[in-house]
Amino acid sequence: MHDDLPEDLDDLQLIQEYLDRQITRALAQHDRPGLHEELPANRRQVVVVGTFLREQAKRVRQRAHYIETGEEPWRAEPAPGWILQFFAKPDNRPSRSTLHRSDCPFGKGKTLTVAEAIVAMRDVPEVDECPQCRPYEELRRRSADLPPAPPLPG
User: Fold this and answer.
1) Is the pLDDT of residue 150 over 60?
2) What is the pLDDT of residue 79?
3) CB 46 within 8 A of CB 83
4) What are 125-128's contacts with CB under 8 Å, separation 24+?
5) Distant-in-sequence contacts of 19-25, Cβ < 8 A, 24+ apart
6) Contact of 107 with 76, CB cutoff 8 Å
7) Confidence of residue 9 (pLDDT cuts 50, 70, 90)
8) What pLDDT does 1 receive?
9) What angle do CA 46, 20, 1 make, to 5 degrees?
10) 128 vs 71, 119, 149, CA distance in Å?
11) pTM above the 0.70 mark?
């Protein structure tokens, strides 16, 4: 990540300090237009420059963190959500439902909390897991109350 930045921590510290000074100058320019000739006098443009500088500083901090730890926590996947898709039966027979992860392209329906999804999979026999996104194992990691995943049909 950020392979365009140096790998040396001292170099990254130097860049970070420079960016911090520039951010401070941009903030001062915003409050007092014309204070620094090299920065735009227009406040909207100063905001754009300040935003750019803050994003660059964030990249430098992330690169330094990666070099120090080998970790990239900003790349972690968002926690999945859960969707319960209902299938209505026209003759009033009990209907089946399918539980999906929120990132499943086939999931359409009611959004559930983790607790609701766990209850649905554990206690409602009419709820099946989606064979595409397989939400059961993720739910099982979040709750010791779920038994091992049942085999998928077919």
Assistant:
1) no
2) 55
3) no
4) 126/94, 126/95, 126/96, 126/97, 127/84, 127/96, 127/97, 127/98, 127/99, 128/96, 128/97, 128/98, 128/99, 128/153
5) 19/53, 19/56, 19/57, 19/60, 20/57, 22/53, 23/50, 23/53, 23/54, 23/57
6) no
7) very high
8) 61
9) 100
10) 36, 12, 11
11) no
Cα–Cα dist 145/119, whole Å: 9
What is the three-class DSSP state of 83?
Answer: strand
Helix 135-142 / helix 114-123 crossing angle, nearest 10 deg? 110
Query: Phi and psi (nearest 5°) for 85?
Result: -100, 125
C-alpha distances out from residue 120 to 4, 35, 98, 116, 139, Å? 47, 62, 10, 6, 11
Q: What does the alpha-carbon distance between residue 58 and residue 51 come to, in Å, rounded to a whole number?
A: 11
Taking only the tens place, the pLDDT of each residue in 58-106 is 899 999 999 999 888 766 555 568 899 887 777 766 678 899 988 888 8
- Note the pLDDT of residue 7: 93
| Local structure of residue 118 (DSSP, 8 states) | H
Structure-token pair, residue 17: 């300090």
